Amino acid sequence: MNTERSSSRAVAAVFSGHGEPFRLEEFPVPAPGPGELLVDISCSTICGSDLHTWHGRRQEPTPCVLGHEIVGRIVAFGQGTPRTDLRGGPLTEGDRITWTLAASCGECFFCRRGLPQKCEQLFKYGHSAIAPGREFSGGFAECCVLRAGTGIVRLPDELDDALAAPVNCAVATVAAACRMAGPLEGASVAVIGTGVLGLQACAMARHLGAAEVIGSDIDPSREADARAFGATAFAEPGALAGIAHQSNGGRGADVALEFSGASAGVAAALGALRTGGQAIVAGTVSPVGPMTLDPRDLARRMLSLRGLHNYAPEDLVAAVDFLVARQRHAPFERLSGPAFPLAEIASAFAAAGSGRRVALLP
User: Fold this and answer.
1) 32/134 Cα distance (integer angstroms)
2) Backbone angles phi, psi at 211, to 5 degrees
3) Angle, nearest 10°, between helix axes 196-207 and 313-326?
4) Can you tell me the distance from the alpha carbon of 145 to that of 161, in angstroms, rounded to the nearest whole number?
5) Residue closest to 200 by CA, chosen among 361, 70, 357
6) What is the full per-residue pLDDT of the chain (362 aa) written as tens digits?
7) Around Cβ 59, how many Cβ atoms within 10 Å?
8) Which end of the chain is more exposed for a tag (fewer CB within 10 A), N or C?
9) Is the alpha carbon torsion for 16, 22, 53, 128 positive or negative?
């Protein structure tokens, strides 16, 4: 552990439910078990799903330690824990790492069918109730115990903590959406919702060779950021279909990536597509109500509609590679908000929600 902290005890911010204050509690630091890792957390960022939980719009088992966008350094390996990361590179004590937001068993029905993020034994960091000896299961703490089946990526020095922390949620989710969409070289891509995920999607689509990227948001003030991150055009949702169908030789977008978290955003995504196009819906993490879908339109235009929740380990690797390659080509610093010490977690949550990732530094 950090030499400034006790080697036997560490602090976690315990969340007990909407309307309840965070409690800073000290717990014994456990030794990592078989297949596990003990990590000293250096930075965590507050994700939109953390805010939904804090505001009561999303329910999690409590008491829990929230936070899943995490960077830390390896303190100790449990017995039999692999000493290689997802790339096959070596891992050792002191390495700075990030990891998949969930651990999966690798053997169940869904793991065997290429959906480890839907593992029947899935464990998600920052989303599980704590138990004696299992308190360090989220990012808003001084340390975290990584369970067996967690995918780990050693971070390059050129990615600072504030930029790297959201990679294992926001950026990896975008990487998964782009993977599901297939090759984007020369494609016309519509990105619906230009918050943190949507801006990353604009940049990643261009990085992957998209010829056109149309950003869309209900907030017209986001146009400047969308263009700075690679959008070649911008439209409010009501105008998106018209703009999209002027692209791609007048056919419409090949791919629509939905990150708005609104049912109207899904409808806008489908409306932007060309015949044979596909929409990836990834923005919804809380209830948004039903949407109207005309099955005839889906059939006659031969559209594909796919949902995305969480991501596969390979997407975390792609996300890190993307940030390393593109960090100087887009103003990623605009996505980083202020940083707070863990003791000021209430102030950090109050400051979050502006579209930037607020950081907590244990």
Assistant:
1) 10
2) -80, -35
3) 80
4) 19
5) 357
6) 454 444 699 999 999 999 999 999 999 999 999 999 999 999 999 998 899 899 988 889 999 999 999 999 999 999 999 999 999 999 999 999 999 999 999 999 999 999 999 999 999 999 999 999 999 999 999 999 999 999 999 999 999 999 999 999 999 999 999 999 999 999 999 999 999 999 999 999 999 999 999 999 999 999 999 999 999 999 999 999 999 999 888 999 999 999 998 889 999 999 999 999 999 999 776 667 788 888 999 999 999 999 999 999 999 999 999 999 998 899 999 999 999 999 999 999 999 976 789 999 99
7) 11
8) N
9) negative
Residue 154 has a CB neighbour count (10 Å cut-off) of: 18
Neighbours of 176 (CB within 10 A): 23
Quote the pTM value: 0.93
Task: Identify whether the C-beta of residue 313 lies closer than 8 Å to the C-beta of residue 216.
Answer: no
Q: Please report where in the chains the tokens 């967690």 appear, as a residue.
A: 150
Secondary structure element (H or E) that encloses residue 72, with its range: strand 69-77
CA–CA dist 41, 57 (Å, integer): 27
Helical ranges in the chain per DSSP H: 48-55, 161-164, 170-181, 196-207, 223-228, 237-244, 263-272, 295-300, 313-326, 345-351
Distances (CA, A) of 338 to 70, 82, 167, 348: 16, 35, 17, 8
Using CA atoms, how far residue 36 sits from 33, 42, 73, 262, in Å, is: 5, 19, 14, 38
Task: State in Å, rounded, how far the first CA of the chain is from the last one.
Answer: 12
Alpha-carbon gap, residue 117 to 127, rounded angstroms: 14
Kind of pairing between the strands at 357-361 and 37-45 = antiparallel
Q: Which residue has the tokens 């050792």?
A: 92
Dist CA 131 CA 104 (whole Å): 19
Listed in sequence order, the residues at least 6 apart from 209 whose beta carbon sits closer than 8 Å to its beta carbon are 183, 184, 185, 186, 187
Residues in the chain: 362
